[in-house]
Every structure is written in structure tokens, then in C-alpha cells.
Amino acid sequence: MATHCVKLSKFFKITGIRHQSKQNRGKSFASSAPTSEARQLEALTVLLHGTCSQKCRRALHARLAVAGAIRDTSIVMGLVERELCAFGSDNFTFSPVIKACTAVSCLRLGRELHCRVLRTGHGGNVGVQTALLDMYAKAGQIDVSRRVFDGIVQRDLISWNAMVSGYSLNGCFLEAIEELKEMQQGGMRLNASTLVGIIGMCGGFEAKDVGSSLHAVAMKYGAIADESLTSAFISMYSAFDDLSSSRLVFDLQPVKDLVSFNSMIAAYMQHCNWKEAFEVFRLMQCAGLGPNLVTVVSVLPSCNDFFGINQGESVHGMIIKFGLAEQVSVASALVSMYSKLGKLDSAVLLFCYFTEKNNLMWNSMISGYLVNNQWSMALDSFCKMQIEGVTPDATAIINAISGCRHTKDLHMAKSIHAYAVRSRFESNQSVMNALLAMYADCGDISTSYTLFQKMEVQMLISWNTMISGFAEIGDSEASLMLFCQMCHDEVQFDLVTLISVISSLSGSEDATVGESVHSLAIKSGCNSDVSLTNALISMYTNCGIVEAGQQLFDSCCFANTITYNALMSGYRKNNVSEKILPLFYQMVKNDVKPNLVTLLNLLPVCQSQLQGKSIHSYAVRNFTRLETPLFTSAMGMYSRFNNIEYCSKIFSLVGERNIILWNTFLSACVQCKQADMVVDYFKHMLFINVKPDAVTILALISACSQLGDADFAACVTAVILQRGFSAKILVLNALIDMHSRCGSISFARELFDSSAEKDSVTWGAMINAYSMHGNGEAALDLFSTMIDSGVDPDDITFVSVLSACSHSGLVEQGRTLFKSLQADYGITPRMEHYACMVDLLGRTGHLDEAYDIVRSMPSRPSDNLLESLLGACRFHGNSKIGESVGKLLIESEHGKSRSYVMLSNIYASAGKWSDCEELRSDMEAKGLRKDVGVSLIGMT
User: Fold this and answer.
1) Tens of pLDDT along 300-351?
2) Which of 138, 375, 638, 765 could join 736 via S-S bond, C-beta 3.0 to 4.6 A?
3) How many angstroms from the chain centroid is the CA of residue 450?
4) In which element (H, E) is residue 926 found?
5) Where are the annotated PPR repeats, by residue (predicted)?
């Protein structure tokens, strides 16, 4: 017996692999003998044959199981056969052998043993039966476990615990609770092993009352002091979002082990309570406990989400101190931490230092590149991991797909898709959903939809991805079709679905559909969510129903920044700009913090430069980083008030100038009539190799039009032709207008004739060119050619051709065109059209007809229109109509001195001196003075 024990003792030293290092683990039992399984089995057989004592034999099995040496199915089968043949079968033999089958998940061999148990008459032994029911439960056959359990005549605590644990392991929560009740009714005393599995299930089933009851039961039976229960209760209360109870359980534990500390840290981390998690980590250090893998992997995210680089480096130093830096899970967490803190170089250094890289390490590095917007590097790493022989898993593929979404590299995207298909990831829902989103973001929505149709299981996230994808490109019809199909397939929509559908509705024709979706949201109980309210406000205002958007805003109890921005944007889109500033004041009063979008809504509607400066100053004071849209909007605001100096200052302060900033500044110069600056800055652009685009060229053309220099216009045209911008229809239209303004009407016509593609703007530009040069007949001929070509004129084209009729005195043609404006083309006349007709009729002496048009206008005539008619009345000596028109002018709140002077001259020409004197007195009473005449003779 002593000899056998010595042999076993020596053997146990070989098999203690759980406590050996990674290098020495290769010398453990599994590989210390010759590598072939036959020789391993031979060594075990020698020991088993040399062991005559059943006690020693059971000790051997137990030690092997604990050491993890018997994990190979073939070895277990060999052991079973030899042991059963050598020693026969008894109650002491079957239990460890069945447990060995459970350890290697060999259900087939376990069933054979079960049959042998029954044949040899050992089926009534409670130990054997308990081992069997545990084996079936861990194999997922809980019904078989129950039948075995029902066959146990004398159940002990171990068998009861095995059955409860089996139910817990298979997710049978209610059955586990019923079993627990039966135990109590049978007078069985519960212990920690009984409760720990059920406690772990309470959080998943949101059974807070059951969890509290189990806590009371644990206290009643004195099991609460068990360390495993403490950790289970901490996790359970954390799942109930009751961190105070978790902390109370933790604090009441007299002696806290590492598992308890890890559970409390994990609970805080799950709820993003970074500070509290780190405080528990410090308590653990004060208690003299060193961290393990679970500890550091749990704590590290608090550094990148709350504390920062200094704390992260401190934890890194502690990891090195405790010898955990070589663990791949810890190294991966460190790479992730440094990446999220923006220290990508440190992350790459750690990654390169680690020699044995597995999927976890590669995934952390690829994610680090994605976090730092290094999309190309992420894709390169995805390729390199395959070159180094590491097969990407689903996480790596999803990360690579995410990189393609940002680079918009459709070729690379299709390559990754092909790899996913070859690697049989088509059944992975996360990968397929990522592919759907990627193709949609890359502008290939048709491929995304084809892929969606081929999916075997279309999850809710798949439907949402497709609906939002079509919404992004403005295809509301496809979004609604998918939504209806989704409802028809009985897939329950969620908040994301409704927001995606609502965001796709933007036209007035969609208002009815939008109201129906709104009703559905109310019916489903989703209308209380502020995100949905924001989407509805945007939808109603985009559809032109501002009142509905206002009502939704007023009824919103928790309006946030996005809510205010949605209504402001709606006001801007519907030309209700006067309501934006009062809404902003309300926003500030309610302590809702403005963001960049808020300021972008405010700057274009500033009523004074002082207001604009105040908003600009607020952005400088409160935003750590100013974005390009804010710079461009601020320059646009200052240019409206002709402040080119401030525009120049803003432009000079920007470090990295993209083409958008250049174009905005050039446009500001054009608006401020600083054509020379546009030319100078355009030259500077070319000097520093900033590539101009079509918007840049349009600004340059506008500046050239302001200069009116035909020679310079020819130079600009040469540059445009050289750089290939003449193919763009917008540029061509601007060139036609530029040359006509510079006096080169013939060259403008050459450009017009050489254009293969002409839109309504092209025709209108040429017609306007003839109008400016007083050639009404040519303008009318070109207008007729335009109609014959099948191009429908727009309202601007009609302004040009009516103006041409006015300059050339073509009354009949003008009348005909004005009547066809609405009758034939459905265009509602604007103020410009009425002004052209009044000017035409006034010039030609048809004052009664002109005055009839003024009186029939749906809105008040503009001052320029009335002044034009008043001047015509004076020219033709019609004091009667002139007096009526003059009164309309001086009654205006914006009455000007020249209107009084013109009416006074009409009274004087008609000999109405008393009226003339009364008018001058009224003019003096209002403080109006006649503009002083200025002579240009002799001025340089």
C-alpha cells in the first residue's frame, strides 16, 4: 500500500499542471510521456494495474480530474475500459468514471456506462444516480436528468443540489424554484451550493422579488457567509440596477476574497460608475490582495472612459509588478485602453512587443485603429493577421467592415464580403447585418437589399438597417414598403424602426403618411420618447406643417438640445426665421445648452452684426474645438453685413483650410464686392497647390462679372477650359452670364451654341444676356426656340424675357407671355414678374393697365415697382394715377425722400401748388431731406 502511495505521489507531481507556468505546462502529464496517446494510455494502465486499493484508485481519478489531465475522450474511454475490466464494477467505480465522461462531454460513453450500471444492479446507488443526473444535465438533457432524479429513493442534499443546479444550468428558472420549494418542504437544509445557481438566474429573468427571498433564505440557513453566495448576490443586485444593495452585501462580508472584489468592481463597471469601481480596486489593494486577470481587465476601461492616461499608466505599472503583462487578455485590454485615450503609438508598441498574437489581440489593435479614425490601417491589420496565420473571427470581420464603411472603399468591401462567404460566416447574423449597413453607407443600396433578401433569418436590426438605408438616400417609398412588409411578416417594430421611417418623410405629399406613423407610435406607446418626438418635429416641419411641429415641441416635457434644433431648423426651412431667436432665448432660459447645430441655425438669421458677433463669441468661449461649418457660417454672416475684414480674420485663423473654407471666403469676397481679393486669393490657391472645384470657379466667374473686364474674362475662360471645368453645366451657365456682363455678347452666344447639354438655366442666361443688351427680338426668338426644343421655362427665365420686352417696348409680346406664365406653365407670378409688366406698360404709356395690375396684385407692391410706375406717370404727365401711386408710396412705413420729391414734382407739373406745399410740409415733419445732388464732372 505504501509503495503504491509513493508511486501516486510521484505521479501527482507530474500532473499538477494547473499550478505550472506556460513553459512548464508542456511537461505536464498530457505531454510529459511520449506524445502518442497509446504510450500515455500505457503509462496510466501501469499505474492502474499497480493500484490494488479502490481508495487509491478513486484518489487517482479525482486528482487527474482536478489537474485537468483527462480531457481527451479517447484517453477517458481507454481508462474506463481498462479499469472496469481490471477491477470489475461496483458503486465506488462508477461514480468517478461517469464524472470523467461528464468532464470530456462524452455523452455516448456515459450512456453506455448507464446501461452497464443498470445491468450490474448498481442503479439504486444514490452516488451513481447523482453522477448520472449531473452528466445528463450538463449535456442539455434535463428531462433525462429528471427521470433519473425521480428514480432516487433516498435523496440526499447532494442529489437535490445536482437537480437544482441542472435546472439552473439549462435556464429552467421556474422549475429550479419549484425544486427549491420541495427541498424546504421535505425538511432539507439548503446550503450555498443549492442557491448559487438560482441566484445567478434571477437577474436574467428580472425576478427581483425572488432574488430578495433567496437572500432571506440564505440568511436563515446561515449560508450567507459563503464567498460564492456573496459574489452571486452582488451580481444579482447589479442586474436589478440596485448598486446600493450590491455594495451593502459587499460591505457586510467580514472577510472579502478576490472574487468578491472582482464582482463589486464588475458591477460598478457595468453601470459606468468608473470612480466607484476604482475606489473598490484601491480597497482591494489596501486589503493586501493582488489583482488577477479578471480584476485588471475590469478596471482598465475605467481609465479610458473616466480617469485618463495617468491613471491608465499607473494600472499598467501594477500589471507589470504582479506579472500579468504577459497574459494575452491583459495585453489586449491595455492596447484597447491606450487606443481609446488617443495614445495610438503606445498601443502599437504594446501590440508589436507581444509575440504570440491571437484573435483577441488582433481585434483590439484593429478596433484601436478604428477608434482613432485610422481606417486604412485597420484594413491593413486585417490583411496582416491573415498573413501571419491568424484566422479572423466574426469580430475581426465586423471591424474590417466598419473600416470599409468609413473609407467608402467598395472594392475592399466586396473582398471582405467574399472572405466572409468563404469562411462560412453567412449564418452569423452580426456579420450579415454589418454587411447590410456597409453597402448602404457605400452608396450601393441595391446590393444591400439583395443581400437582405437572401438572409435566412431577417432580424429586427436587419429590417431597421434597410429601412434607415433607404431613408438616408431619401427613398421614402422603399422605406415605407419595407415597413409594411415587416409588419406583414409579424416582425415587431421598435423605436429605431419608427424613427427611421419618420426620417424618410420630407415632402408635403408625405404628411398624411407621417400622421399615420405618428398615430402608430402613440398606439404602441413609443410617443413619450424624446428621440421620436425630435424626429416627428423634423418630419412635420419638413412637410411644411410648422404648427404641428410647434405643438409637439410645446407638449414635450423633456425637450433637449436636439428638440430645440429640430424646431429651429424647421423654422428656417419654412421661412419663419423671426421665431428662431425667441426660441433660442427660451432655450437659454431653460438651461438647455446650445451645440454647434444651434449656432448654425442662429448665424444666418441674425438681424444685426452685433447679434452675429455675440453668437460667434459664445462659440469661441464654450467650444474647445471649432468645426469647419461654424467658420463658414460665421463668414457668411459677416459678409451679409459687408464686413470683409472679419471674414479675412476668421479665414487667417484657421490652421488646416479645406476647399470648403476657401470657397466660403471667396464667396464672401464676391458678396462684399471685393472682386480683386477673389482674384488674388485664387492665385494664392494655385500657388500652394490647393485644387479648386466647381464652386471655386463659380466664385471666380462672379468676381470677373463684377470687374466687367472683357480681357480678364477671356483669361478666366482659358483657365477654366484648361482645367476641364467647362464640361460642368453650372460653370458654362456662369460663363455665358459673365461674358454678357463684360460686353462680349457674341462670345456668350458661341459658348451657348457649343454646349451639347442645355438646361433651363442655360437658356435663361442667354435670354438674359440679350435682355441686358437691349435686344428684345433676339431674346424672344431664343425663347421660342427654347419652347420648341421641349425645355420648359422656369420663373427666372420669364423674368429675363419680360425684362427684354420691357427694354425693347414689345407690349403685345409681353402681355402674351405674362398671361401664359400661369395659364400654360403653372407658375405663380412673383413680384419680379409684376415689376417687369408694370415697367413695360409704364414705359409705353399704358398707365391705366399698369395701375390695374398694381391693384390686382395679391400682396402689397414693392417700393421699387411703385417708384417705377410713379416715374412713368410723371414722364407721361398723368397726375391722377401718379397721385394714387404716390400716396401708396408715402403711406409706407419705409417712405423715402425721393418718393415725396417725385410726387411733389407731379403736383407741380399739374399746377397743384397747394398739394405740393402740403406734401413738402409733411416731408419736413417726418424729418426727411432731399438727397443732395452730386456731379461727376471733374471727379477723378
Assistant:
1) 777 765 666 777 777 788 788 888 878 888 888 888 888 888 888 888 888 8
2) 765
3) 23
4) none
5) 156-190, 257-291, 358-392, 560-594, 658-692, 759-793
